[in-house]
Amino acid sequence: MGVKLRLINALQKIDTEISRINNRKKMLPGELAKLDETLQVFCADFEKDQKVLEELNKAHKEREEKLKRGLENLKKTRERLSDVKTNKEYQAILKEIEVTESKNSSMEDEILIIMDKLDQIKKQVKVKEIELDERRRDYGSKKQRIEQELTEMDAEIASYLEKHLLLKEQIAPDLLKKYDTIKIRSHGVAVVAAWKEICMGCHMNIPPQLYIELQKDQKDIDIEYCPHCNRIIYWEDQHKKGE
Ligand SMILES: [Zn+2]
């Protein structure tokens, strides 16, 4: 590979890396926001359960007090029985006792139902409390990892930009200008490999004569362009690549 080509290819590799890192960087805040949202949804659900628990506790207390008053009423009404003078009065008190007993009994039923619900929600809250704790820890460590990744990527970009500057100094201005123009026009990729007579940029066939030229390993070989997409092309043995 000629020197010019080697340098411009190296520049392309750096630009590709920078663009890859920048793309990843753009995605990270979204990933973090998604994690945050999931945690918030769980939190809201947990708080709803807590509220239900609170309300049931309150309802339980209220009914226990009502029952206590009802039982006191019953006791007082029964005491009045010994003072009655007439049968009519006696019947009226019996009726009153019956009504109070019935009220107390339904209050007891309500209390049992509430206690049953309380039992369930208490268990639920306990399980969710543990899960929320785990989720918070998980979110914290993921957030930390993302922030660390962002810092690392900034450092990586800075180091690539430094290499980018050094390379640019070694490339002729007219070639650089051409490179930039092709890059803008070709979705950020100005230099591509050619393999098996195919341009890896546009996947079109490269004329055989040009392909033969590309394979010549001349030191000062001129820069060649794909006749279809106009990108700078070079030949590289794709079998040896990555060995
Ligand atoms: Zn092409």
Helix content: over 70%
Averaged pLDDT = 94
Low-confidence stretches: none
- Termini, distance in Å? 18 Å
Q: Give the percentage of residues in beta strands.
A: 5-15%
Q: Strand pairing plus helix content: what structural class?
A: mainly alpha
N-to-C series of helices and strands: HHHEEHEE
Sheet with the most strands, sense and barrel status: 4 strands, mixed
Provide the domain count.
2
Compute the number of helices.
Answer: 4
CATH architecture of the largest domain: Orthogonal Bundle
Strand order of the largest sheet: 2-1-4-3
CATH topological fold name of the largest domain: Helix Hairpins
The whole-angstrom Rg is 41 Å
Which molecules are bound in this entry? zinc ion
Number of distinct beta strands? 4
Could you name the CATH class of the largest domain? Mainly Alpha
> Which quaternary structure do these chains form?
single chain
The coarse silhouette is rod-shaped
Keywords:
single chain, 243 residues, mainly alpha, Helix Hairpins, four-stranded mixed beta sheet, 4 helices, 4 strands, 5% strand, rod-shaped, binds zinc ion
Explain this structure to me?
- By secondary structure, the protein is mainly alpha-helical.
- The protein has two domains: 3-170, Helix Hairpins, CATH 1.10.287; 173-235, no CATH class.
- Helix content is 75%, strand content 5%.
- The chain has helices at residues 3-80, 87-170, 173-185, 208-215; strands spanning 191-195, 198-199, 224-225, 232-235.
- Strands 2-1-4-3 form a four-stranded mixed β-sheet.
- Strand 3 (224-225) and strand 4 form a beta hairpin.
- Helix 1 (3-80) packs antiparallel against helix 2.
- Bound molecules: zinc ion.
- Zinc ion binds at residues 199, 201-202, 204, 226, 228-229, 231.
- Zinc ion binds next to loops.
